[in-house]
Amino acid sequence: DVNDLVMQGALLILFPPTPSCGYVRPDVNRVNERLEELIELGFDLTYNVIGDIMQLFENRLSDVGGIFLESFVKIKGITVKELLEKILIESIKPERNLKKFELWNFLNIHLEKIYDEDFNEEAKKLRSKIEYQEDAFMKAMTEYMEHTSESNITNNPDNEDDTEDAPKKFITSLKLLPKFYSWILKIFGANAEITKVCFDDILKTRVSINEQLIQDLNSELPPNGWTKCSYEATVNIWKIFCNSG
Protein backbone atom coordinates (compact mmCIF):
# COMPACT_ATOMS: atom_id res chain seq x y z
CA ASP A 1 0.00 0.00 0.00
CA VAL A 2 1.59 3.24 -1.20
CA ASN A 3 -0.14 5.34 1.45
CA ASP A 4 1.25 3.17 4.25
CA LEU A 5 4.75 3.13 2.80
CA VAL A 6 4.86 6.89 2.37
CA MET A 7 3.65 7.66 5.90
CA GLN A 8 5.97 5.11 7.48
CA GLY A 9 8.86 6.21 5.29
CA ALA A 10 8.43 9.83 6.32
CA LEU A 11 8.88 8.94 9.98
CA LEU A 12 11.80 6.62 9.24
CA ILE A 13 13.54 9.55 7.58
CA LEU A 14 12.87 11.73 10.62
CA PHE A 15 13.88 8.96 13.02
CA PRO A 16 16.46 6.78 11.23
CA PRO A 17 17.49 3.46 12.84
CA THR A 18 21.15 4.49 12.68
CA PRO A 19 21.36 8.30 12.93
CA SER A 20 24.30 10.05 11.33
CA CYS A 21 26.80 12.08 13.29
CA GLY A 22 25.26 15.35 14.43
CA TYR A 23 21.70 14.06 14.12
CA VAL A 24 19.15 16.09 16.08
CA ARG A 25 15.95 14.31 16.98
CA PRO A 26 12.87 16.13 15.64
CA ASP A 27 10.31 17.45 18.09
CA VAL A 28 6.55 17.03 17.91
CA ASN A 29 6.11 20.18 15.85
CA ARG A 30 8.44 18.89 13.13
CA VAL A 31 6.63 15.55 13.04
CA ASN A 32 3.29 17.34 12.77
CA GLU A 33 4.57 19.53 9.95
CA ARG A 34 5.78 16.56 7.92
CA LEU A 35 2.64 14.49 8.39
CA GLU A 36 0.38 17.46 7.63
CA GLU A 37 2.36 18.10 4.43
CA LEU A 38 1.68 14.54 3.31
CA ILE A 39 -1.99 14.77 4.27
CA GLU A 40 -2.32 17.92 2.15
CA LEU A 41 -0.87 15.92 -0.76
CA GLY A 42 -3.65 13.36 -0.38
CA PHE A 43 -2.12 10.78 1.92
CA ASP A 44 -4.05 9.58 4.96
CA LEU A 45 -3.01 8.88 8.53
CA THR A 46 -5.48 6.06 9.17
CA TYR A 47 -5.53 4.08 12.39
CA ASN A 48 -4.23 1.11 10.44
CA VAL A 49 -1.25 3.23 9.39
CA ILE A 50 -0.76 4.37 12.98
CA GLY A 51 -0.74 0.72 14.02
CA ASP A 52 1.85 -0.03 11.33
CA ILE A 53 4.02 2.84 12.53
CA MET A 54 3.88 1.76 16.15
CA GLN A 55 4.79 -1.78 15.13
CA LEU A 56 7.61 -0.55 12.90
CA PHE A 57 9.12 1.39 15.80
CA GLU A 58 8.25 -1.14 18.53
CA ASN A 59 11.88 -1.53 19.58
CA ARG A 60 12.25 2.24 19.96
CA LEU A 61 8.93 3.18 21.52
CA SER A 62 10.55 4.13 24.81
CA ASP A 63 12.47 6.78 22.87
CA VAL A 64 10.05 8.03 20.21
CA GLY A 65 6.65 6.60 21.20
CA GLY A 66 5.66 9.61 23.27
CA ILE A 67 6.40 11.97 20.39
CA PHE A 68 4.27 9.86 18.07
CA LEU A 69 1.32 9.79 20.47
CA GLU A 70 1.42 13.55 20.92
CA SER A 71 1.61 14.09 17.17
CA PHE A 72 -1.17 11.62 16.31
CA VAL A 73 -3.46 13.15 18.95
CA LYS A 74 -2.95 16.59 17.42
CA ILE A 75 -3.50 15.47 13.83
CA LYS A 76 -6.51 13.23 14.53
CA GLY A 77 -8.10 15.75 16.90
CA ILE A 78 -8.78 13.20 19.64
CA THR A 79 -7.67 12.57 23.22
CA VAL A 80 -4.76 10.35 24.23
CA LYS A 81 -7.26 7.90 25.73
CA GLU A 82 -9.19 7.68 22.47
CA LEU A 83 -5.98 7.21 20.51
CA LEU A 84 -4.77 4.45 22.81
CA GLU A 85 -8.10 2.64 22.39
CA LYS A 86 -7.66 2.71 18.60
CA ILE A 87 -4.05 1.51 18.77
CA LEU A 88 -5.02 -1.25 21.20
CA ILE A 89 -7.41 -2.70 18.64
CA GLU A 90 -4.80 -2.44 15.91
CA SER A 91 -2.13 -4.05 18.09
CA ILE A 92 -4.07 -7.25 18.81
CA LYS A 93 -4.98 -8.03 15.20
CA PRO A 94 -3.48 -11.46 14.45
CA GLU A 95 -2.28 -10.40 11.01
CA ARG A 96 0.24 -8.09 12.68
CA ASN A 97 1.87 -11.16 14.20
CA LEU A 98 3.81 -9.21 16.82
CA LYS A 99 6.90 -11.10 17.93
CA LYS A 100 7.55 -9.13 21.11
CA PHE A 101 5.67 -7.55 24.01
CA GLU A 102 7.03 -4.03 23.53
CA LEU A 103 3.97 -2.43 21.93
CA TRP A 104 1.54 -3.86 24.48
CA ASN A 105 3.89 -2.86 27.31
CA PHE A 106 4.09 0.65 25.89
CA LEU A 107 0.32 0.99 25.63
CA ASN A 108 -0.15 -0.39 29.13
CA ILE A 109 2.32 2.14 30.55
CA HIS A 110 0.42 5.00 28.94
CA LEU A 111 -2.89 3.67 30.25
CA GLU A 112 -1.26 3.81 33.67
CA LYS A 113 -0.31 7.45 33.07
CA ILE A 114 -3.89 8.32 32.14
CA TYR A 115 -5.12 6.70 35.33
CA ASP A 116 -2.58 8.56 37.47
CA GLU A 117 -3.27 11.93 35.85
CA ASP A 118 -7.01 11.86 35.11
CA PHE A 119 -8.53 9.91 37.99
CA ASN A 120 -9.23 11.76 41.23
CA GLU A 121 -8.90 10.07 44.61
CA GLU A 122 -12.57 9.13 44.79
CA ALA A 123 -12.48 7.52 41.36
CA LYS A 124 -9.35 5.60 42.30
CA LYS A 125 -11.12 4.14 45.32
CA LEU A 126 -13.81 2.72 43.05
CA ARG A 127 -11.48 1.39 40.39
CA SER A 128 -7.89 0.26 40.74
CA LYS A 129 -5.19 0.99 38.20
CA ILE A 130 -4.87 -2.64 37.11
CA GLU A 131 -8.66 -2.86 36.69
CA TYR A 132 -8.60 0.21 34.46
CA GLN A 133 -5.82 -1.28 32.34
CA GLU A 134 -7.58 -4.62 32.14
CA ASP A 135 -10.84 -2.95 31.09
CA ALA A 136 -9.05 -1.12 28.28
CA PHE A 137 -7.59 -4.31 26.82
CA MET A 138 -10.88 -6.15 27.37
CA LYS A 139 -12.73 -3.44 25.45
CA ALA A 140 -10.30 -3.78 22.54
CA MET A 141 -10.63 -7.57 22.54
CA THR A 142 -14.42 -7.43 22.68
CA GLU A 143 -14.66 -4.93 19.85
CA TYR A 144 -12.29 -6.93 17.67
CA MET A 145 -13.94 -10.28 18.40
CA GLU A 146 -17.44 -8.91 17.77
CA HIS A 147 -16.40 -7.90 14.27
CA THR A 148 -14.64 -11.21 13.59
CA SER A 149 -16.94 -13.63 15.41
CA GLU A 150 -16.85 -16.23 12.62
CA SER A 151 -13.38 -15.60 11.26
CA ASN A 152 -11.75 -18.32 13.32
CA ILE A 153 -13.97 -21.11 11.97
CA THR A 154 -13.31 -22.40 8.47
CA ASN A 155 -14.27 -25.53 6.59
CA ASN A 156 -11.35 -27.90 6.14
CA PRO A 157 -10.25 -27.52 2.50
CA ASP A 158 -8.70 -31.00 2.57
CA ASN A 159 -12.00 -32.70 3.34
CA GLU A 160 -12.59 -34.84 0.24
CA ASP A 161 -15.93 -36.06 1.62
CA ASP A 162 -17.38 -32.56 1.68
CA THR A 163 -20.87 -33.56 0.55
CA GLU A 164 -24.29 -32.90 1.97
CA ASP A 165 -24.38 -36.35 3.59
CA ALA A 166 -20.82 -36.40 4.89
CA PRO A 167 -19.96 -34.76 8.22
CA LYS A 168 -18.08 -31.54 7.71
CA LYS A 169 -14.73 -31.06 9.38
CA PHE A 170 -14.22 -27.63 10.83
CA ILE A 171 -11.00 -26.05 11.95
CA THR A 172 -11.24 -23.65 14.86
CA SER A 173 -8.18 -21.48 15.33
CA LEU A 174 -7.37 -18.90 17.98
CA LYS A 175 -9.00 -15.53 17.41
CA LEU A 176 -5.94 -13.70 18.70
CA LEU A 177 -2.23 -14.43 18.89
CA PRO A 178 -0.88 -16.94 21.43
CA LYS A 179 1.78 -14.32 22.15
CA PHE A 180 -0.90 -11.84 23.18
CA TYR A 181 -2.65 -14.38 25.40
CA SER A 182 0.68 -15.14 27.05
CA TRP A 183 1.20 -11.43 27.73
CA ILE A 184 -2.30 -11.06 29.20
CA LEU A 185 -1.65 -13.95 31.59
CA LYS A 186 1.69 -12.45 32.62
CA ILE A 187 0.34 -8.94 33.26
CA PHE A 188 -3.12 -9.57 34.72
CA GLY A 189 -2.75 -13.01 36.28
CA ALA A 190 -4.68 -16.26 36.06
CA ASN A 191 -7.76 -15.04 37.95
CA ALA A 192 -8.45 -11.89 35.93
CA GLU A 193 -11.65 -11.76 33.89
CA ILE A 194 -9.71 -10.94 30.73
CA THR A 195 -7.52 -14.00 31.24
CA LYS A 196 -10.64 -16.16 31.49
CA VAL A 197 -11.86 -14.77 28.16
CA CYS A 198 -8.51 -15.68 26.61
CA PHE A 199 -8.67 -19.17 28.07
CA ASP A 200 -12.18 -19.67 26.72
CA ASP A 201 -10.88 -19.10 23.19
CA ILE A 202 -7.89 -21.38 23.83
CA LEU A 203 -10.15 -24.11 25.22
CA LYS A 204 -12.52 -23.99 22.24
CA THR A 205 -9.56 -24.28 19.91
CA ARG A 206 -8.07 -27.18 21.83
CA VAL A 207 -11.42 -29.02 21.82
CA SER A 208 -11.70 -28.43 18.07
CA ILE A 209 -8.28 -29.99 17.52
CA ASN A 210 -9.22 -33.04 19.56
CA GLU A 211 -12.51 -33.45 17.71
CA GLN A 212 -10.75 -33.29 14.37
CA LEU A 213 -8.23 -35.92 15.45
CA ILE A 214 -11.02 -38.19 16.71
CA GLN A 215 -12.79 -37.94 13.35
CA ASP A 216 -9.68 -39.30 11.68
CA LEU A 217 -7.66 -41.49 14.05
CA ASN A 218 -5.06 -42.09 11.36
CA SER A 219 -4.39 -38.41 10.77
CA GLU A 220 -0.95 -37.01 11.41
CA LEU A 221 -0.01 -33.92 13.36
CA PRO A 222 -0.50 -31.11 12.76
CA PRO A 223 -4.17 -31.59 11.78
CA ASN A 224 -5.28 -30.79 8.25
CA GLY A 225 -5.46 -27.06 7.63
CA TRP A 226 -2.85 -26.23 10.26
CA THR A 227 0.76 -25.29 9.83
CA LYS A 228 3.23 -26.91 12.19
CA CYS A 229 4.10 -23.52 13.69
CA SER A 230 0.49 -22.50 14.41
CA TYR A 231 -0.34 -25.92 15.83
CA GLU A 232 2.66 -25.96 18.16
CA ALA A 233 1.98 -22.39 19.30
CA THR A 234 -1.64 -23.27 20.09
CA VAL A 235 -0.74 -26.40 22.04
CA ASN A 236 1.98 -24.50 23.89
CA ILE A 237 -0.31 -21.65 25.00
CA TRP A 238 -2.84 -24.28 26.13
CA LYS A 239 -0.18 -25.85 28.35
CA ILE A 240 0.93 -22.46 29.70
CA PHE A 241 -2.60 -21.53 30.75
CA CYS A 242 -3.29 -24.97 32.23
CA ASN A 243 -0.12 -24.77 34.32
CA SER A 244 -0.84 -21.24 35.52
CA GLY A 245 -2.99 -22.40 38.38
Secondary-structure map with pairings?
Layout: H1 2-14, H2 28-40, H3 47-56, H4 61-76, H5 80-91, H6 102-118, H7 121-126, H8 129-147, E1 153-155, E2 170-172, H9 178-188, H10 193-215, H11 228-242
Antiparallel strand pairs: 1-2
Helix pairs in contact: 1-2, 1-3, 2-4, 3-5, 5-6, 5-8, 6-8, 9-10, 9-11, 10-11
Features:
2916_t:CDS:1, 63% helix, 11 helices, 245 residues, 2% strand, 2 strands, two-stranded antiparallel ribbon, mainly alpha, 2 domains
Summarize this entry quickly:
It comes from Acaulospora morrowiae. This is 2916_t:CDS:1. Helices cover 63% and strands 2% of the residues.
Q: What does this protein structure show overall?
A:
The protein has 245 residues and is mainly α. The chain folds into 2 domains: 2-145, no CATH class; 151-242, no CATH class. It is 63% helix and 2% strand. The chain contains 11 helices and 2 strands, in the order ααααααααββααα. It has helices at residues 2-14, 28-40, 47-56, 61-76, 80-91, 102-118, 121-126, 129-147, 178-188, 193-215, 228-242, and strands at 153-155, 170-172. It has a two-stranded antiparallel ribbon. Helix 2 crosses helix 4 (61-76) and helix 10 (193-215) packs across helix 11. The N and C termini lie far apart (45 Å). It comes from Acaulospora morrowiae. This is 2916_t:CDS:1.
